[in-house]
């Protein structure tokens, strides 16, 4: 973003990075906004990021969390708890440790590349401890309502009512950061399945699925091929008598383990790749994408092929599903046309007889029961928020939602950048455009998103572009040209290497001094997380071979890129 444009956005003369790195480093030039009293609702990934960013910007901040611990969704419970996300016992992260961390705290060395929920939850607690967040969190305290104060039009303040062991209390805050997650309210589209009311077996949403033992010997139908449906199907295939997985529109199914065994996101989520997506004609980029997805197996032959092949709808990350299909332990079927008392009839006329259990792995809807619907409208799961964060029609920009939009990148870094921007707006360091401009931009972006991600993925966004855009608002977007001139080794990793979270706290306000080292050592940490048997004749290389193979093309593109305004 040009300096002028940034100045317009920030409203503060020093909130830009061009050539100013030394000054940011020294600290005094860091923009300092008005101190505010801020409420954060929820202490999951988003809430911890919001709390930390708000405190970092020297605001008095209270975080309200209805449970007794941090980590939100990542805390497994034996039974689903009302108002909270609920996961099954075997959930692993589908982003690797270098991409799923906060930008200012790499994961401990002993962690594997992809983490079980217990380990990731441990990391979230570590983050809260390292940044001394726990004493700002009021556990067992539920936010019952938030309402505009009587003087909202002048002050933008909110009245927040909380409940602690049945006792309610009202307090006034200058601003509220809503971090309550969006995998709480199940989407159970029973109206789409005629006959389900006559079905005599058991049916449920996956929210109530916890582990495979109780399904041993049963005939199970899973509806929905998202990450949840695929995980549950693969898991049940070992104990259930029969597992059928029904999908109405298919999905690309990818492995967590990519070229030469590196985590998929270390190889694929790069600025270079994002740059190619931007400059290549859509037809070529679609062709490359499809080829990449088809590398391991033909989705057509496995009955998985997505109806809209070119859509960048979130892929399913599953290393076992293809094996289950090829071994016959999971059978892929089209959409369910109807249920009878004991069977499911599919669109192709085939029938699964004697179904014991139907698990609807049909995703989630989001809701904010503690505030007026008109503030954040959920119309068909579309996001009515400017840049996925601010309600554009609110008279004062003092309420922000953190963690609602999602991208292929890990959530912690996205929420960190969203929170830094939100806090900067609340403190008056950055300014939002006029309402009409925001509404217009929002509509345009929604249409573009539908075209790119498909209709069912309205909460999705492109990771690198989205992060860069928000970072440009707060003066933290990595300046590639400057980096190439001053620190080419780092610049190379920033452009061709994984677009890891550390990049977004490399320079500018919120700079983390460990970011450079974290970027330069990310491949070594990745290898260390799996190589426990060292063979000394190995040729040591921490560079991914795919990048080496493509060296010539990137150099050429780089030249174009650098010359690009
Ligand atoms: P949550 O984790 O849901 O936290 C919300 C918190 O708010 C909770 O602690 C809740 O108790 C609290 N709360 C809610 N309402 C109130 C209230 N009224 N008052 C007080 N407190 C309240 N994303 C990835 O990036 N990588 C992954 O590998 C990944 N895996 C996933 C696996 C599953 C099975 C699911 C369902 C999602 C996964 N996601 C993944 C996406 C996931 O949403 C994020 O990882 C992340 O957990 C979202 O964090 P959050 O803080 O926004 O919400
Ligand atoms: P999801 O991604 O929203 O997938 C829901 C599936 O249900 C889709 O395949 C959808 O089909 C289908 N569906 C919805 N309504 C339907 C209807 N009326 N009829 C037929 N099919 C219908 O939900 P999810 O799999 O629970 O995942 C939610 C989030 O959690 C995702 O971000 C995911 O990445 C994450 N997650 C991660 C892991 C992990 O390994 N870390 C595990 C589980 C979940 P269409 O595609 O046709 O819309």
Question: Strands, helices and their partners?
Answer:
Blueprint: H1 3-10, H2 21-26, E1 37-41, H3 45-56, E2 60-64, H4 117-130, E3 137-138, E4 141-148, H5 152-155, E5 158-164, E6 167-173, E7 175-178, E8 185-186, E9 202-205, E10 219-223, H6 227-236, E11 242-246, E12 253-254, H7 264-268, H8 271-279, H9 282-293, E13 316-317, H10 321-326, E14 331-333, E15 336-339, E16 344-346, E17 351-352, E18 357-360, E19 364-365, E20 378-379, E21 382-383, E22 399-401, E23 406-407, H11 411-426, H12 435-453, E24 460-461, H13 463-474, H14 480-486, H15 488-496, H16 515-520, H17 522-528, H18 545-549, H19 552-563
Helix pairs in contact: 3-11, 11-13, 14-15
Bound molecules: flavin-adenine dinucleotide and NADP nicotinamide-adenine-dinucleotide phosphate (NAP).
Family: Belongs to the FMO family.
Subcellular location: Endoplasmic reticulum membrane; Microsome membrane
Protein name: Dimethylaniline monooxygenase [N-oxide-forming] 3
């Amino acid at each position: 973003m040009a300096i002028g444009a940034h100045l317009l956005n920030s409203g503060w003369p020093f909130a830009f990075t061009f050539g100013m790195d030394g000054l940011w480093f020294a600290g005094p030039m860091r923009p300092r906004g008005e101190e505010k009293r801020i409420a954060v609702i929820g202490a999951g990934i988003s809430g911890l990021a919001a709390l930390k960013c708000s405190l970092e910007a020297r605001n008095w901040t209270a975080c309200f969390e209805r449970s007794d611990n941090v980590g939100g969704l990542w805390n497994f419970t034996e039974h689903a708890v009302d108002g909270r996300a609920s996961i099954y016992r075997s959930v692993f992260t589908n982003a690797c440790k270098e991409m799923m961390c906060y930008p200012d705290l790499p994961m401990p060395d002993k962690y594997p590349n992809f983490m079980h929920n217990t380990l990731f939850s441990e990391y979230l607690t570590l983050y809260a401890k390292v940044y001394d967040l726990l004493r700002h969190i009021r556990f067992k305290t539920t936010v019952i309502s938030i309402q505009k104060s009587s003087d909202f039009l002048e002050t933008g303040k909110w009245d927040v009512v909380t409940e602690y062991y049945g006792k309610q209390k009202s307090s006034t805050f200058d601003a509220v950061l809503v971090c309550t997650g969006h995998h709480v309210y199940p989407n159970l589209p029973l109206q789409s399945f005629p006959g389900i009311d006559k079905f005599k077996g058991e049916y449920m949403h996956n929210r109530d699925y916890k582990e495979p033992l109780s399904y041993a010997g049963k005939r199970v139908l899973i509806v929905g091929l998202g990450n949840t449906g695929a995980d549950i199907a693969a898991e049940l295939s070992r104990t259930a008598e029969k597992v059928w997985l029904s999908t109405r529109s298919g999905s690309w199914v990818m492995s967590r383990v990519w070229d030469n065994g590196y985590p998929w996101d270390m190889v694929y989520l790069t600025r270079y790749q994002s740059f190619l997506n931007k400059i290549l004609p859509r037809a070529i980029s679609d062709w490359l994408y499809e080829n990449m997805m088809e590398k391991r197996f033909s989705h057509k032959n496995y009955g998985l092929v997505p109806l809209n092949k070119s859509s960048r709808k979130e892929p399913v990350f599953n290393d076992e599903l293809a094996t289950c299909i090829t071994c016959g332990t999971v059978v892929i079927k089209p959409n369910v046309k109807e249920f009878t008392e004991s069977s499911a009839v599919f669109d192709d006329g085939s029938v699964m007889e004697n179904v014991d259990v139907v698990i609807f792995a049909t995703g989630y809807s989001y809701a904010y029961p503690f505030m007026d619907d008109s503030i954040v409208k959920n119309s068909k799961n579309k996001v009515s928020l400017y840049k996925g964060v601010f309600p554009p029609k609110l008279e004062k920009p003092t309420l922000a939602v953190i963690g609602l939009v999602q991208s292929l990148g890990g959530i912690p870094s996205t929420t960190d950048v969203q929170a830094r921007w939100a806090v900067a707006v609340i403190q008056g360091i950055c300014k939002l455009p006029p309402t009409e401009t925001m509404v217009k931009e929002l509509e345009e972006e929604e249409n573009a998103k539908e075209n790119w991600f498909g209709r069912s993925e309205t909460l999705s966004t492109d990771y690198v572009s989205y992060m860069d855009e928000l970072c440009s608002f707060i003066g933290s977007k990595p300046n590639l040209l400057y980096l190439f001139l001053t620190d080419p080794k780092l610049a190379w990793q920033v452009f061709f290497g994984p677009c890891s979270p550390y990049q977004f706290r490399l320079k500018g306000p919120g700079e983390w001094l460990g970011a450079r080292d974290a970027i330069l050592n990310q491949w070594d940490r990745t290898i260390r997380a799996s190589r426990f048997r060292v063979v000394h004749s190995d040729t040591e290389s921490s560079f991914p071979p795919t990048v080496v193979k493509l060296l010539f093309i990137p150099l050429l593109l780089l030249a174009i890129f650098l010359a690009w305004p």
